[in-house]
Amino acid sequence: MINQLLLLAYVLAIILLSLKLRQGTFSGFVLSNRNIAYPAVIGIAYTAAYFSAASFLGGGGYGLAAGMPWVIFCSLFHVGFACIAWIMAGRIWTMAKQYDAKTVPQLLERRYNSPLGKVILAIIMLILYTVYLVPIFKGCATLFQGMIGVSYLEGLLITVAIVAIYYAIGGLPAIIWVGFIQGVLMLIGAVFLYGGLISAGGGLDIWERIPLDVLSMNGLNIPWQQTFGQAFSISLGLLALPDLLIMIFSARDKRVVRFAGIYGPISIAIYSVCIFSLGILAYGALSAEQIAPFLKNPDGLVPFVATLILPKGFDGIILLAAISAAMSTMSAIVLVTATSLTSDILRYLNPGIADRKVLLLTRMIGVAILIIAAVSAINVPQQIVPLVAVSMGIIACCVLVPLFLGIFWQRGNETGFIASLLASFLSVVVWYFYGYPLIHPVFVGLICGTAAYLIGSLATSRPEGVKTTG
Q1: Dihedral class, residue 51 (left if φ above 0, else alpha if ψ from -120 to 50, else beta)
Q2: By residue range, what is the domain housing residue 59?
Q3: Of the residues 17, 127, 312, 385, which has the maximum number of CB atoms within 10 A of its CB?
Q4: CATH code at 122?
Q5: TM segments (predicted)?
Q6: Is the CA virtual torsion 102, 104, 106, 111 positive or negative?
Q7: Strand locations in 77-172, DSSP E?
Q8: For residue 269, is it within any domain?
Q9: Among candidates 394, 380, 383, which has minimal Cα distance to 432?
Q10: Could you give the CA distance from residue 188 to residue 182 in angstroms, rounded to a whole number?
């Protein structure tokens, strides 16, 4: 009953905040009119939007199979890429301001003077973000199932209802402010879980109880090379996922972006170390009989640990933290996916469409995307992490190359931009099905995308009218 009451209070708070932040214009709905003035809000909301239930469940349990390499690689890549992302954030904010860009495809369209490139990127985002939502829905429904006793299907329905309400009402302002609250809950939940397992394992003596093969960097049941690729692919999203970049776009000025770059990496470091360590800590805190059911399906470990080792009521905080991880990511993804269809594709086909109609369609299509993803999540693979790694990695590849090279290399042009998009997308998909399994598809996508960008740009004329960023 305590968990149900906490959830009810949480949902009511989200709805009230969303109503307060309700926006009546398209710019306000998708970009908060660039008026977010609090660095901590943007920095922690960025962290919340990046980490989802896939990290809380899949990332928390994956160490059972991958061992210590999962902890080391995930922590190092996440913290390292977070620092790079926030170092670059000021330049990205300046470019978005100069081009008056409200979406990432629109930003790259104006940098390369390429409406076609914008549409191609928007289509890629529409497909892959919908796929990416599926494992997040699975994670959220699994949480509801394990911690408040509803069925998996009922968990999916509850998730759709909550996210749809505050997405459709508040848009990006609600997503950022609710995301800030959700990020704080996520950090508290991660620390509670980490501390709870350490305590259950006898404090620092827990490391003596963990088998040596779990702590070996050779990997446990998964080769370290495969773990390295998955950790790299997932954390690469910190540099270029559109649902994160729009939070940078929303800052009031460059000073806000600069100071948000302090809160973002610190919160990511705390969360990464705590959550990605849970799988290996379980070997030192739980019995072999308790661990056995989760060796084939690690995604159920975190709810089990929360209900087993935390005092009554504290497991409710974990429920809210994990649900927050899911919903903060979902809402941001739905926003950028819906706007990629309405603002980027629909406006390309019908430039004269009114803002009011685009806003209405963005709300409606976002809810439709949530429903489609939830239906698709009724039957998904057992493990969340591999599915997230591929879908997130493709989007990151497609955006990262033209975004970063477009900032630093003014020679890049429309041909290079389009060639990079197609090469990144196609090479990752082909390698995923036919390539060598120990080399992650995202490495191939980055190499092919960069090569295509450079060759395409150098083989054609120089771009005209490219603005520089400071």
Answers
A1: beta
A2: 2-458
A3: 385
A4: 1.20.1730.10
A5: 36-58, 70-96, 116-137, 149-169, 230-250, 262-286, 317-338, 358-378, 384-409, 416-434, 440-459
A6: positive
A7: none
A8: yes
A9: 394
A10: 10
